[in-house]
Amino acid sequence: MKICYNEATMMKNASLEQSMELCEKYGYDYIEIRLDKLKDYLDSHTVENLVDFFRSHELKPYAFNALEFISFRDKEGYDQILADFDFLVDVGLKIDCKKIVTVPSFSIGDYTISEIEKETARALKDLSDRAEKVGFKIAFEFCGDPTCSVNTLKQTNSIIKAVNRDNVGIVFDCFHFHAMNSRIEDLYEVDPGKIFVFHIDDVMDLPIGWLQDKHRLWPGEGAIDLDLIMTALKKIGYGEMASVELFNEDIWEWDLDKAFKAGMDTTKKVVSKYFGND
Ligand code: ZN
Q: Ligand 1: distance of its center to the CA of 157 in Å?
C-alpha cells in the first residue's frame, strides 16, 4: 500500500511547493493536491514548473481535492464547478493526475433519501460524461456530518450503483465512516476497484453528530477502529494507497518537518500491520 499526503493536513501553513518538497523528503509516494493550494501556487509559478517537479522527483500526484457541493446547485454555482473542473483537467493532463474528488452538498433542506440519490446521481453522471472525454475519474466523498446530504457509506453505495459508470467511484475516508456510524458490513459490499481514494486518519473520542473535521488526529492516535477497517480493506482486496488527511487546527501550527514526519510515521505504523509498501 502506497503512502500519500493530502494537503488539508497542513493546510494553513504549507504551500503546495513546500508540501511537495516535504513529501519527497519524508518518502511519501503520492500527494493529493488541493484546488485552492494549486491556484495559490500558480500565482507565482507555472504549470510547467509543476511538470518539471514531478518529472525530476519520486513523488507523484494522485488526485485533486475537491469539487465541492456538486448536487442541488443553481446554474451559477454549477458553472463555477465546471470552470474548476476544466481548470483541473487542463493541469491534470500535463502532470498525469486524472482523478478528481467531488463532495455532496450540505444543509439542503427536507429532501428524502431517494430524492437525494436521484439528484446526486444526476450530477455525478454529468461529471462522468465530461470526465470520460478526457480520460478522468470522478471520486465521490460522502461526509460524516449530520448536515451533509450524503453522510453514510450505505447511502453512497446505493448512489454509486445507480450511477453505474466505470469512471465514478468513491473516496473512503475513515473519519467520515466513523463520524456518522457507518456500518462495516457496508464496506464489505464495496467493489475494491470502486475505491478511487482511501483517506486515513483518526479522531477524538467524541459523540456521533458532534464530530467535525477539526477533531481529526494522526492515524492510530484516536477512537476509530482502524484495525476493523484495515481488515475489511484487505479482505475485499483493496491495497492501493492510504492518504493521510487531517484538518486539525492545532496540528496546523506544528513545525512542518515534524508534521510531515508524523504523518508518514503514524500512517505507516497502521498500514504496515496489514500491507507491504507496494
Ligand atoms: Zn477525506
A: 16
CA of residue 166 to ligand 1 center, whole Å: 21
What residues are paired with 230 via a beta bridge? none
Strands 30-34 and 241-244: unpaired
pLDDT tens, position by position, 35-48: 999 999 999 999 99
Q: Are 60 and 92 in contact (CB under 8 A)?
A: no
* pLDDT tens digits, 243-274: 999 999 999 999 999 999 999 999 999 999 99
Cα 201 from Cα 221, distance rounded (Å): 9
Residue for grid cell 453505474: 164
- Yes or no: say if 78 and 106 are a contact pair by the CB < 8 Å rule: no
User: Half-sphere exposure (CA, 13 Å, Cβ side) for 272?
Assistant: 7
CA of 100 to the centre of ligand 1 (A): 12
Residues with Cβ within 8 Å of 55's Cβ and at least 6 positions away in sequence, in order, are none
Between the CA of 142 and the centroid of ligand 1 the distance, in Å, is: 8
Q: For residues 95 and 50, is the Cβ–Cβ distance under 8 A? A: yes
Taking only the tens place, the pLDDT of each residue in 220-230 is: 999 999 999 99
Question: Which pTM value belongs to this model?
Answer: 0.98
Measure 114 CA to ligand 1 centroid, in angstroms.
Answer: 24
CA distance 104 to 159: 11
Determine the distance separating the centroid of ligand 1 and the alpha carbon of 246, expressed in angstroms.
8
Q: Is the peptide bond before 66 cis (omega within 30 degrees of 0)?
A: yes
260 by DSSP, 3-state: which?
helix
Predicted confidence band at 277 (pLDDT cuts at 50, 70, 90)? Answer: confident
For residue 90, how far is its CA from the centre of ligand 1 (angstroms)?
23
pLDDT band at 233 (very low <50, low <70, confident <90, very high): very high
